[in-house]
Input
Amino acid sequence: MNFNSIVEEEPIIPSAFDLSSDADSPDNEGNFNLFWTKSDGAVNYFVYQDSSYINEINVNLTILEEGIRNLTIFLSDYG
Output
């Protein structure tokens, strides 16, 4: 007898994290690091850019980097 079963898993919603930077204020060079703490449930991270504060992920954002597995990224030429 063959049985087919479908198991649906609840999606894991990653936990909150803290984001920081070593950029000067103002940062004339435009070169800096972003650092963040581990988000439980996250497999990898994306860095987005927008002209204003980002409150939600949507198609209007620019992806700077995707699939990051480290907890830091160096960004340059933003001066």
Remarks:
- The chain has one domain: 19-75.
- The CA atoms of residues 22 and 33 lie 6 Å apart.
